[in-house]
Amino acid sequence: MLHPFLQQILQLWRQDILGECLAFSKRRKATVSFLDPDDKAASGFGVSGDHGPKSSEVYGFVGSITTVVATVIFFVWAYVPENWLQAIGIFYYPNKYWALAVPTYAMVTILLALLFYVGLNFMSTSPPTSLNTIFDEFSREPSTFIPSREGDEQPIEPISDIGINKINDLMFKNVK
Questions:
Q1: Tens digit of pLDDT for each residue in 102-115?
Q2: Cα–Cα distance between 157 and 167 in angstroms, integer?
Q3: CA–CA distance from 156 to each of 6, 147, 148, 151, 159 (Å)?
Q4: 36 in a domain, yes or no?
Q5: pTM, to two decimals
Q6: Which residues contact 40 (CB under 8 A, 6 or more apart)?
Q7: Crossing angle of helices 55-79/97-124, nearest 10°?
Q8: Fewest CB atoms less than 10 Å from the CB: which of 84, 85, 100, 150?
């Protein structure tokens, strides 16, 4: 049930839109022709018959417009006083408590999910003192390659793990 003023505006808007559509159709005699998408000679170019936006583009556009409209409706509901909403004919809406509660619940849920994820990762990994953090069944020792001559091109060595002793020498060699 809308306010009488809004009903009058909607009625005038409908009449204006319908009037323009009818006037446009009377002024112009439209001819409709359908092209065969397989007929490449009709277009003059050898292009594919697939024209128009992709479905992912349409879904993205509709999703973005829906998000903007929903956000505007949410902010109007959250910040406009109740007597103003009732003055324009909006009588049924959720309690304003939910304007604060839903975002708060969502943020707390996301925070708890992140903490839960980090906790699961700590539970599934080996402790730092375990040798499994250094070696496992997939560890590969570096292969030794002796070049034949100095001027020859060198092949790329296969992938391998750097030993912990070499890492310690490189990082802590000069530290005493």
A1: 999 999 999 999 99
A2: 18
A3: 75, 12, 15, 15, 9
A4: no
A5: 0.47
A6: 46, 47
A7: 130
A8: 150
